């Protein structure tokens, strides 16, 4: 038993390394998603930056306002990949092969999740770097960038929990892929393009209030535009994302248990 | 305990009340080569999956290498190597990477994993393809790599679920040779499932025939042939008329006699001793066959016979 416990970290490292190799050998896993996220940044900045002159923006830079949309969309790609990687393993029989080793069952699920997290942090950092090239100024400074990445990681973990849970339940690539379409309502039924006060439709206001991503946007924008002077939206962001993580990780853990011990 | 397997009254019922395995019992000794022979859907793979900790039995006792499969699945996994019907290969990894990965998960250090991987590639003849992506391998190469992966930790018991299905004869020979070597030279216990009678006949010390979730016969190949098989005496005559006459004269011989045009086949438990009587009867009638030969029973006959009787009587033999 001691051997098993001692090797848990080792198992997780081996599983993660293997997932990272798989990701790197299939650039099509991350390039389209990264391209779309960059596209969001360029197109919305180019097309919509004029509205930052409206009084509701209080003089904020539109680039800083739209950057979180791009980051969140990139994170969804990295996190969704974890679920798709597991589906691929289930499809080609590799999952059974791993189950037949004495590897910790937790490490089997953690490997692709951690690899997905590494992927999304790298993507988010790239997007922020491009933001700087476009003239981004971060009120929260270096610490601010770090906290934004931390929020991204939290959000990615929550979405990975969801995508892994769906993948292990559906056990086929199509369903797992379909599951990621929740991406659209999450990103767009929110304060995506304009602040809450400027949303006209009542239904969209309701949707934005219910959508956890709204709180993530608010937290990131506060850091990027106002810094740490007003901490409440940042704290609220962490609370919402933390709660979401608890829900989706529990969901994926239950699904994993089912997939691992078929009755 | 070594590489023993003990299975007692194992039942597996899937969702929707499908009973895949209906009370199976058997024992396999250390170092034995045992084959589970049966058609598609007989319950072979389900039994393998239960023995290898992949699925849980509905009821019954399974002990592998001395460990209870339900209580100590981790200990069982350390003692067994499993090649499932579908190979378990990540196409994005190279041959050598897959073997190293597998070795690492079995607790090998980085260095010893590399050494073991190279040994195994040599063993299955994939050294030259070590640095190619396994996704680019042919079906036969993938099978060989899959077998190598099951051997990483030198398991005491090897489970092979239809290891040669879909392989060409040359790849099949390679796999057979390696399995035989493991059993004879390293004393590895082998549990093989197959649909091919020839495979079971060639490789196994002992065979259980399984059909519709039940074991219908168990024994060495010779025992099974003696109990369930029949010799076939094959006669050919110049004309159909002669064959008909011969049929009339020999009708009472053996188990049964079949007439097709100018050909006559007599099925009997001991064909050779029956020959003297047969020749005398034909001589009396002035009937002289143009061809005569006796064929010993094949495992095919046994298989057909046993499954037929199971259907007819609903009785299980042991």
Automatic annotation (TrEMBL), chain A:
<feature type="domain" description="ABC transmembrane type-2">
    <location>
        <begin position="28"/>
        <end position="259"/>
    </location>
</feature>
<feature type="transmembrane region" description="Helical">
    <location>
        <begin position="146"/>
        <end position="168"/>
    </location>
</feature>
<feature type="transmembrane region" description="Helical">
    <location>
        <begin position="108"/>
        <end position="134"/>
    </location>
</feature>
<keyword id="KW-0472">Membrane</keyword>
<keyword id="KW-0813">Transport</keyword>
<feature type="transmembrane region" description="Helical">
    <location>
        <begin position="27"/>
        <end position="44"/>
    </location>
</feature>
<dbReference type="InterPro" id="IPR047817">
    <property type="entry name" value="ABC2_TM_bact-type"/>
</dbReference>
<dbReference type="Pfam" id="PF01061">
    <property type="entry name" value="ABC2_membrane"/>
</dbReference>
<keyword id="KW-0812">Transmembrane</keyword>
<keyword id="KW-1003">Cell membrane</keyword>
<feature type="transmembrane region" description="Helical">
    <location>
        <begin position="234"/>
        <end position="254"/>
    </location>
</feature>
<feature type="transmembrane region" description="Helical">
    <location>
        <begin position="180"/>
        <end position="199"/>
    </location>
</feature>
<keyword id="KW-1133">Transmembrane helix</keyword>
<dbReference type="InterPro" id="IPR051784">
    <property type="entry name" value="Nod_factor_ABC_transporter"/>
</dbReference>
<feature type="transmembrane region" description="Helical">
    <location>
        <begin position="64"/>
        <end position="87"/>
    </location>
</feature>
<dbReference type="InterPro" id="IPR000412">
    <property type="entry name" value="ABC_2_transport"/>
</dbReference>
<dbReference type="InterPro" id="IPR013525">
    <property type="entry name" value="ABC2_TM"/>
</dbReference>
<protein>
    <recommendedName>
        <fullName>Transport permease protein</fullName>
    </recommendedName>
</protein>
<comment type="similarity">
    <text>Belongs to the ABC-2 integral membrane protein family.</text>
</comment>
Automatic annotation (TrEMBL), chain B:
<dbReference type="InterPro" id="IPR017871">
    <property type="entry name" value="ABC_transporter-like_CS"/>
</dbReference>
<dbReference type="InterPro" id="IPR025302">
    <property type="entry name" value="DrrA1/2-like_C"/>
</dbReference>
<keyword id="KW-0067">ATP-binding</keyword>
<comment type="similarity">
    <text>Belongs to the ABC transporter superfamily. Drug exporter-1 (DrugE1) (TC 3.A.1.105) family.</text>
</comment>
<dbReference type="Pfam" id="PF00005">
    <property type="entry name" value="ABC_tran"/>
</dbReference>
<keyword id="KW-0547">Nucleotide-binding</keyword>
<dbReference type="Pfam" id="PF13732">
    <property type="entry name" value="DrrA1-3_C"/>
</dbReference>
<dbReference type="InterPro" id="IPR050763">
    <property type="entry name" value="ABC_transporter_ATP-binding"/>
</dbReference>
<feature type="domain" description="ABC transporter">
    <location>
        <begin position="5"/>
        <end position="237"/>
    </location>
</feature>
<keyword id="KW-0813">Transport</keyword>
<dbReference type="InterPro" id="IPR027417">
    <property type="entry name" value="P-loop_NTPase"/>
</dbReference>
<dbReference type="InterPro" id="IPR003439">
    <property type="entry name" value="ABC_transporter-like_ATP-bd"/>
</dbReference>
<dbReference type="GO" id="GO:0005524">
    <property type="term" value="F:ATP binding"/>
</dbReference>
<protein>
    <submittedName>
        <fullName>ATP-binding cassette domain-containing protein</fullName>
    </submittedName>
</protein>
<dbReference type="InterPro" id="IPR003593">
    <property type="entry name" value="AAA+_ATPase"/>
</dbReference>
<dbReference type="InterPro" id="IPR005894">
    <property type="entry name" value="DrrA"/>
</dbReference>
